[in-house]
Amino acid sequence: MEKRIDFTEGKIISKLLVFAGPVLLALFLQAMYGAVDLLVVGKFGTSADVSAVSTGSQIMMTITNLISSLCMGMTIYLGQKIGEKRADEGGQIVGSGLAMFALVGLVLTVILPLTSTLLASIMNAPKEAFDLTVSYIAICGGGAIVIIAYNLIGGIFRGIGDSNTPLVTVLIACICNIVGDIALIAGLGMGAKGAAIATVMAQFVSVIISYLMIRRKQLPFYIDKKMLRFNGKIIRKILFLGTPIALQDLLVGVSFLVILSIVNSIGLNESAGVGVAEKVCVFIMLVPSAFMQSMSAFVAQNKGAGKIDRAVKGLKSAVGISFALGIIMFYTAYFHGDILSGLFSSDAEVIIASADYLKAYAIDCLLTCFLFCFVGFYNGLGYTSFVMLEGVLGAFAVRIPVSFLMSKIEPVSLFRIGLAIPCSTVLQIILCFIFLKYINKISRKKDN
User: Fold this and answer.
1) What's the CA gap between 275 and 347, in Å, rounded?
2) Which of 13, 113, 219, 272 is the most exposed place for a label (fewest CB within 10 A)?
3) Cβ count near 127 (within 10 Å)
4) How far is it, in rounded angstroms, from Cα 288 to Cα 283?
5) Please, are residues 185 and 191 in contact by the beta-carbon 8 Å criterion?
6) What is the pTM of this model?
């Protein structure tokens, strides 16, 4: 029998840590996956290559996050059925999910390469890096169906309480990507194009190997070819849970793309600097990101079992652990951002720009420990519409207008532009606390 975690019984902190550990490692490897592209390009390519990978990967990350968020609908649905002790329905949920995401993947595989020039234009890709940015988007977009399959595998297994299988799949992808980057960028001098090819090929190999591994695993439900169909009731439920999360991630991603577009209009070094800072940021946000995913699975199971009090205790534990580690990340990013940036670029001006932007992200490290755990908590409870609302308000009421206003203050400072990020997080945290008070009030009325 494959090892899966039952979150509805036993000690909360130990269960969370056991589950979050592999999730954290998987996110770390995923971060390494993206970081290696920029690291190798930064060492063996030009500033134009760095800018192209920065802009192109930000677009692809936005699309990938959109798909991952839709997958979260299936993860939550599966988790709730596991908590209700009705895992036998899992096969139909997974089968319908696979059919739906296969269609989405085919559509994106066709559309993204055709719109790559338009996307690069919208992003104000610097003139020196424009053609490279178009090529990066076109190549990665052509592999969209592979990227979706890769993320879908992780979503399914986190839903049944297995965080080890996604860790193995991302490890495979990371190793393949490193080999591909070294061969194509360092060896053949293909720059941004080599990074894009390595990304798609690595995920393709990972999906094939992962499929062979999964066939040998014992799942808590039965699935066959007949279940691979569009079951309207199940798809509506997946979309009901996943669409608000996806819209929130999409619109939040768009807000970051707007910031990058603003920076791209400033200059090539600033564009490359923010790209480097974004890669560093993925690492310093690993712990809250891991707890966000873990909280979704933890809370979904406990909601299914009717143990909401246990879910709240899990939220408090996750915030405490995440904040303690967030202090370390804040210090490192704020006072040693130049050292971190130097890992991804050898250009002094790019490093200075990146370190300046990272100071704003360092402040956000202390805040996301609260926000990300809240997001996982509300997703697990099924309040995905609220998650969408607070995310959209943070992005469009604060992040975009503040970054735009800061870009108009002379001399232009990437630190001031970056301050839009923690400012939006503060608003989102306030909204999360207000909503928690609201649902507690509703719960007390029902009990009376």
Assistant:
1) 13
2) 13
3) 9
4) 10
5) yes
6) 0.68
CA distances to 133, 160, 425 from 229, in Å: 37, 21, 40
Q: Tell me which residue range forms the domain holding 154.
A: 12-447
> From start to end of 116-191, where are the E strands?
none
Q: In total, how many domains does the chain have?
A: 1
Residue written as token pair 């290559």: 49
> What does R_g of the chain's alpha carbons equal in angstroms?
21
Closest CA to 64 of 39, 97, 30, 93: 30
- Lookup result for tokens 């990066």: 136
Distance in angstroms (rounded) separating the CA atoms of residues 326 and 313:
20
Residue 96 included in any domain: yes
Determine the Cα–Cα distance for residues 166 and 252; give it in Å rounded to an integer.
25
- What amino acid is encoded at 227 in this protein? M
Q: Write the CB contacts of 245 (distance below 8 Å, at least 6 apart in sequence).
A: 69, 70, 72, 73, 379, 384, 387, 388
Say which amino acid occupies 303.
Answer: K
| Residue indicated by tokens 């591909």 | 180
Which tens digits make up the pLDDT trace of 116-155? 888 888 877 778 888 888 888 898 888 888 878 777 777 6
Per the rule left: phi > 0, alpha: psi between -120 and 50, beta: everything else, 46 is: beta
**Per residue in 347-401, pLDDT tens?**
888 889 899 999 998 999 999 989 999 988 998 888 878 988 898 899 889 999 9
* Backbone conformation region of residue 306, classed left if phi is above 0, alpha if psi is from -120 to 50, else beta: left
Residue type present at position 76: I
**Residue 3 in domain:** no
User: Does 4 reside within a domain?
Assistant: no
Cα–Cα distance measured from residue 51 to residue 39, given in angstroms and rounded to the nearest whole number: 12
State the sign of the Cα–Cα–Cα–Cα dihedral 7, 12, 17, 20: positive
Q: Please check whether residue 101 lies inside any domain of the structure.
A: yes
Helix locations, 84-143, DSSP H: 90-114, 116-122, 130-142
Position 293, amino acid: Q
Which has the minimum average pLDDT: 148-162, 241-255, 397-411? 148-162
In the block, which residue shows the tokens 């649902």?
439
Contact 183, 217 (CB under 8 A): no
Residues in the chain: 448
| Residue 153 CB-half CA count within 13 A | 27
Report which DSSP code applies to 413. Answer: -
Contact present, 229 and 67 (Cβ < 8 Å): no
CB 126 within 8 A of CB 48: yes
Residue 50 structure tokens: 């760095």
